[in-house]
Amino acid sequence: GESVGLHLPTLSVQEGDNSIINCAYSNSASDYFIWYKQESGKGPQFIIDIRSNMDKRQGQRVTVLLNKTVKHLSLQIAATQPGDSAVYFCAVFSGGYQKVTFGTGTKLQVIP
Amino acid sequence: EAQVTQNPRYLITVTGKKLTVTCSQNMNHEYMSWYRQDPGLGLRQIYYSMNVEVTDKGDVPEGYKVSRKEKRNFPLILESPSPNQTSLYFCASSAATAYEQYFGPGTRLTVT
């Protein structure tokens, strides 16, 4: 089955700097990917998604990059703010819209 | 306000005492799902429902039951809870698929 991992469990970033959070997946047939943000005491919140026919997608201050060759995706947050402090994890869809595997999450700590 | 609600938010119980965690959404969503979140592991799907009276097992269904008698409600039932079911549980809903799910605030369950 699909396995999804993140490279770093914790990432500390200075306020104003850019943050990069990574996710690796194992199934080359994976075709849809979502990044979620989970603040302390709350449920996960959708940030941005990307389909396998794309390499890059941008949102407001966030960019997701997908490298299908090495089965890796990343979330870039520009000008990181204290409100960005949270756990971020990826969700990987393989073989349809019902089967999803979640990564374990990276805790982003923003240093004021 | 569009939301997914869960009750209770916190629950401490003893082994073998049946319990139900309720989940309700006000967005007229067809797809609903239950997940558990444990330290060091990603969200794992317990059960999901594509519509009323249609439910299916996720990755970790053992020890859990669900029902979908109404579109808005999707309760999670633990007939005989055990300590290994101590976890943080999330209910989620979406318009049609596991894509872009809206998550509830979570229920922290402790089974002693």
* Radius of gyration of chain A over all CA atoms, rounded: 13 Å
- Unreliable residue runs of chain A: none
Instruction: Give a count of the beta strands of chain A, DSSP E runs of length 2 or more.
Output: 11
Largest sheet geometry of chain A? 6 strands, mixed
Number of strands of chain B: 11
Number of helical regions of chain A: 0
Rough shape of chain A?
globular
One letter per element, helices H and strands E, the order of chain B comes to EEEEEEEEEEE
Kindly state the percentage of residues in helix of chain A: under 10%
What share of residues are in beta strands of chain B?
Answer: over 45%
Runs of chain B with pLDDT <50, length 5+?
Answer: none
Mean pLDDT of chain B: 95
Greatest interface (CB-CB under 8 A), with counts per chain: A-B, 22 and 24 residues
Strand content of chain A: over 45%
**Overall mean pLDDT score of chain A?**
91
N→C terminal distance of chain B: 36 Å
Explain this structure:
With 112 residues, chain A is an all-beta fold. Chain A is 0% helix and 56% strand. Chain A contains no helices and 11 strands. In chain A, the strands form 2 sheets. In chain A, strands 2, 4, 5, 9, 10 and 11 form a 6-stranded mixed beta sheet that branches. In chain B, strand 9 and strand 10 form a beta hairpin. Chain B is globular, with a radius of gyration of 13 Å. Chain A binds chain B through residues 4, 32, 34, 41-46, 49, 89, 91, 93, 97-105, and chain B through 4, 35, 40-45, 48, 50, 56, 90, 92, 96-106.
Layout: helices, strands, pairs:
The complex is a heterodimer of chains A (112) and B (112).
Chain A: E1 4-5, E2 10-14, E3 19-25, E4 30-38, E5 45-51, E6 56-58, E7 62-67, E8 72-77, E9 86-94, E10 100-102, E11 106-111
Parallel strand pairs in A: 2-11
Antiparallel strand pairs in A: 1-3, 3-8, 4-5, 4-9, 6-7, 7-8, 9-10, 9-11
Chain B: E1 4-7, E2 10-13, E3 19-25, E4 31-37, E5 44-51, E6 54-57, E7 65-66, E8 76-78, E9 87-94, E10 102-103, E11 107-111
Parallel strand pairs in B: 2-11
Antiparallel strand pairs in B: 1-3, 3-8, 4-5, 4-9, 5-6, 7-8, 9-10, 9-11
